[in-house]
Amino acid sequence: MALLRHAAAPLRSVRCLRTTPTTARSFSLTTRRQGGGGGQQFDPPTGWLWGVKPGEKPEPEGWEWPMYIFCGSIVVTAIAMAYKPDTTVSTWALEEARRRLEAEGILPDPSSSGDNKN
């Protein structure tokens, strides 16, 4: 069966070369149809930015206020995350080690060293 398939393949390619573009059938035998309501979907350009004439107030759309609230919450969250305190374990351990070393007298107290400079 495989031998017949390989033998027929060159004949099929020759048959495709013999057909001219005028005799070749198209993929669809029916005429092209336009979907939807059949009306024109293109709005001709008016020359005004977003179709609003100067001096007229644009009509608010339903998605605008939820989008403003969403974007505002993103900005507030970003500011809150930028100014949040550092609560990692390594920061706590460093501060605790510094306090213990200052209490034992190994490290000088930074608040008392500023007074001695005068």
UniProtKB/TrEMBL annotation:
It is found in: Mitochondrion inner membrane. It comes from the Eukaryota. The keyword Membrane applies. It is a single-pass membrane protein. Keywords: Electron transport, Membrane, Mitochondrion, Mitochondrion inner membrane, Respiratory chain, Transit peptide, Transmembrane, Transmembrane helix, Transport. InterPro entries: NADH_UbQ_OxRdtase_ESSS_su. Residues 25-55 are annotated as: Disordered. Coiled coil: none annotated. One of its GO terms (cellular component) is mitochondrial inner membrane. Complex I is composed of 45 different subunits. Interacts with BCAP31. Accessory subunit of the mitochondrial membrane respiratory chain NADH dehydrogenase (Complex I), that is believed not to be involved in catalysis. Complex I functions in the transfer of electrons from NADH to the respiratory chain. The immediate electron acceptor for the enzyme is believed to be ubiquinone. Belongs to the complex I NDUFB11 subunit family. This is NADH dehydrogenase [ubiquinone] 1 beta subcomplex subunit 11, mitochondrial. It comes from Emericellopsis cladophorae.
